[in-house]
Design a protein that fits this description.
43% helix; alpha/beta; 2 domains; Rossmann fold; five-stranded parallel sheet; 16 helices; globular
Length: 401
């Protein structure tokens, strides 16, 4: 592990945003920044070698386990929770960008769990000999120490965006995995819409998940963000979500909203990164994405043979989706219309904000074919998705949640 040069910190970056009037003074945010600054400074004291963990016979561990004898405790991580738009992801991103170590990973929690399940599947398919070759034990039925060791080799600091647990498979894995990760010295910073005690609330076999909650409360500093300003909604206020027709003007308006939502300058449009999502072993390309906002063309998502799994991955990963150039639907493009229905269903169920440009006004979007009844629901949902009640809904929260 190597340290990166100390040129700035979360507090310096946050104060600059306040001074530039990009943020309003907020006591909860200031408290969170103090905690992130504390962790930032503690990262300088980490040894430059391996994580903690049990010794093994692999070359990796025998060379790098000097960390076992290090006297200082592992720095306490941070768990930021609160309502939509309170700045959780923004603050974590400030911390991540300035964190003075190179061994770090920032990932949406759902994507992280998909990766963990893929690692588990791969482990169970290994022969005894292959397990030994990869640093495990031939007769070891518990893959968690091995998987935790692999994860922490890749990143000592893990930053999770939108930690939420709704799937029993995730719930059953988390307690065992994070017990190993914390034992081996991982440092976690996480954001969530819910306090720890409400994670996986009313879930099946929740009692088996409770030790994970206790680990979070022990290893992470729990900080609420319940300030008065919903920055995400603030930035959407006064803006349309459905633009027509498809022309240079509507494209410019959507572009301006993207830069407003992501705190970027329009002059830096060529620097907006792309991303790739892993969907059931396939790669789904995201042309532009920043701060939880993704931009797609209609053709990329609905003219290509994508399905529900792809749309769910997008809905879980991004709190806002911008789509450009939706055509009018007729009997000639019913397949594309069906995919569009499935996309909107996924986004709606996960509270994703949806902005778009289309060829015609919303009531005229469907002009004929054999799925008119199904499309009526989509028009109804698109109408609701323009409302204040929907725009202030938390990401990942279903209606009434």
């Amino acid at each position: 592990m190597s340290h990166v040069p100390h040129t700035t910190s979360p507090k310096i970056e946050y104060q600059a945003l306040i001074q530039n009037a990009e943020l309003k003074p907020d006591a909860d945010q200031a408290n969170a920044v103090d905690a992130l600054e504390r962790l930032h400074l503690e990262l300088f004291d980490l040894p430059l070698d391996s994580p903690r963990g049990e010794r093994s016979k692999s070359n990796w561990s025998t060379v790098l386990f000097g960390w076992l004898n290090h006297d200082k405790p592992v720095p306490k991580g941070i768990y930021l929770y609160g309502g939509v738009g309170r700045g959780k992801s923004m603050l974590m991103d400030l911390f991540y960008a300035t964190a003075p170590i190179a061994s770090k990973r920032r990932v949406h929690f759902h994507e992280f769990m998909l990766d963990v399940h893929n690692r588990l599947k791969t482990w169970h398919e290994l022969s005894a000999r292959e397990k030994v070759q990869q640093g495990g034990r031939a007769n070891d039925d518990d893959p968690m120490p091995f998987i935790a060791r692999k994860i922490i080799q890749e990143a000592r600091l893990l930053c999770f965006d939108e930690l939420q647990v709704t799937d029993i498979a995730d719930a059953m894995v988390l307690t065992r995995l994070f017990k190993e990760l914390f034992t081996q010295g991982v440092i976690v910073v996480a954001t969530s819409n819910r306090p720890p005690d409400e994670l996986y609330k009313n879930g099946l076999n929740r009692q088996r998940f409770l030790p994970f909650i206790e680990q979070v409360k022990e290893k992470l500093e729990i900080i609420p963000l319940q300030g008065p300003t919903d920055y995400r909604y603030d930035r959407l206020q006064g803006a349309q979500t459905y633009y027509f027709p498809i022309n240079e003007e509507t494209s410019s308006q959507l572009s301006a909203i993207f830069f407003r939502l992501t705190d970027r300058q329009i002059k830096d449009r060529d620097k907006v990164p792309s991303e790739t999502l892993n969907v059931q072993g396939r790669s789904l390309f995201v042309p532009k994405a920043a701060r939880g906002v993704a931009v797609f063309s209609f053709k990329r998502l609905c003219a290509n043979p994508l399905g529900t799994a792809d749309y769910l991955a997008i809905a879980r990963t991004y709190h806002t989706v911008i789509m450009v150039a939706i055509p009018q639907f007729t009997e000639n493009n019913n397949d594309e219309a069906r995919r569009f229905i499935h996309l909107i269903d996924a986004l709606y169920e996960h509270g994703v904000k949806f902005l778009c440009s289309a060829a015609v006004p919303l009531p005229e979007l469907y002009a004929g074919g054999d799925i008119g009844f199904e499309f009526e629901r989509t028009v109804s949902r698109l109408t609701e998705m323009q409302s204040e009640a929907y725009l202030t809904r938390g990401h990942g929260k279903t209606t009434g949640a």
